[in-house]
Amino acid sequence: MAASLPGAAWGSTLLVDAGFPGGNIVVDKIEGDAVFLRPDLRGTTTDWFYWYFRVREAGGRTLTFRFPRDVIGVRGPGLSLDSGRTWQWLGAQSVVENSVSYYFPIGSPEVRFSVGMPYVEENLREFLARNAGNPHLRPDVLCKSEQGRNVELLHAGRLDGKPTYRILLTARHHACEMMASYAIEGLIEGITANDGTGAWFKKYAEVLVVPFMDKDGVEAGDQGKNRAPHDHNRDYSTKDPSIYASVRALREYLPRWAQPGLDFALDIHDPVLRTGSNEQLAFIGSPFPENWARVEDFCSILESIQQGPLPYSVKNNMPYGQLWNVDYSYNDFDSWAVKLQGEPVTTTLELPYSNVAGQPVTAESAGVFGRSLAVALSLYLQRDRPRTANTP
Q1: Residue 327's pLDDT is what?
Q2: Can you give the pLDDT at residue 322?
Q3: Structural domain containing residue 42
Q4: Is residue 1 part of a domain?
């Protein structure tokens, strides 16, 4: 039986669909053991590559999933056998041209596949539940999204309202860039750890975290990148009001919270798929020379202390004027944050979806890198932005 349905199709008892948080697929037809499908580009002005679907009632069969173009990363698709709670890479050997084949064991109730390792509100809830007893991590709500969801806001570090330093972390301005969320988890773990870095943050710094800037897009499974009429990361114009509730709320809340000034703002993204220049961890430069010089100072510290499997080198950064970084919009997060009171160090990090210099990007490896970011933040602020400390 063939079907042409957005997000679901049946063949005998086989079900292929995207009817869950973060799901995204269009199934064009099923012919025997071949499933023809493609990313759902709803709301997107350009072609993009995010997809996430599940397969049920396929036990004992080998299915081949055929895409019309290259939307599979260098490690093959992400694979989950527990409804999206944990993930592994299926591997490059599973891919032939634009197709993926997989044998479904008899009795397997559900298998999920994705271009990456999706991270949605349920994952954040599990993370917060694991840290529910931590007095240095406080969940809050920034605002309601357009569709009525809570846009989460997290406070970490020193939470008595008297920090010496104030730091802003954001992710998922583009809904599909899920690997950034695992780095955010690692950052929070580093900030609240029972070690020297955690002790410094608990004594000196409050960190504000917005884990899902495009919350509706994350839950709906949207691409998010190049959303019409513009995406969340192009909603910071000084000439026009922001059209998204989360951006409006952050622009209103942050200056009040960050009195007398913000010290550091970091926005984490994932780049495009399968290009050599984007298989490195890279900070992206802006056309503000003084700010970029301070970013590179921070990066030098990060390179010197970084631990874990994902290698980082300052030489892989992308200063303004190189490669694709030549057309600055002046209406993105960086251009807004860099002008906030306190002259904060402001930058964007690109964390690849699946591969960094030959090493796999996973929930664990991205989290370890996030903890290195926390260490580097504490060392940089102590060295380059010394201030008189408030006494707890």
Answers
A1: 81
A2: 87
A3: 8-114
A4: no
Q: What residues contact 391, with CB distance under 8 A and at least 6 apart?
A: none
- Sequence-separated (6 or more) residues with CB below 8 Å from residue 344: 168, 261, 262, 263, 264, 265, 337, 338
Of 88, 114, 140, the last residue of a domain is 114
Query: What pLDDT sits at residue 12?
Result: 58
pTM attached to this predicted model: 0.95
Q: Is residue 227, in this structure, part of any structural domain at all?
A: yes
The yes-or-no verdict on residue 72 having pLDDT over 90 is yes
31 with 105, same domain: the answer is yes
On whether residue 3 sits in a domain, the answer given is no
Secondary structure of the chain in HEC code, one letter for each residue:
CCCCECCEEEECCEEEECCCCCCECEEEEEECCEEEEECCCCCECCCCCCCEEEEECCCCCEEEEECCCCCCCCCCCEEECCCCCCCEECCHHHEECCEEEEECCCCCCEEEEECCCCCCHHHHHHHHHHCCCCCCEEEEEEEECCCCCEEEEEEEECCCCCCCEEEEEEECCCCCCCHHHHHHHHHHHHHCCCCHHHHHHHHHEEEEEECCCCHHHHHHCCCCCCECCCCHHHCCCCCCCCCCHHHHHHHHHHHHHCCCCCCEEEEEECCCCCCHHHCCCEEECCCCHHHHHHHHHHHHHHHHHCCCCCCCCHHHCECCCECCECCCCCCCHHHHHCCCCCCCEEEEEECCCCEECCEECCHHHHHHHHHHHHHHHHHHHHHHCCCCCCCC
What integer is the mean pLDDT of 37-41? 98
Domain match, 110 and 125 both: no
> Considering the domain boundaries, does residue 51 fall inside one?
yes
pLDDT tens profile 127-155: 999 999 999 999 999 999 999 999 999 99
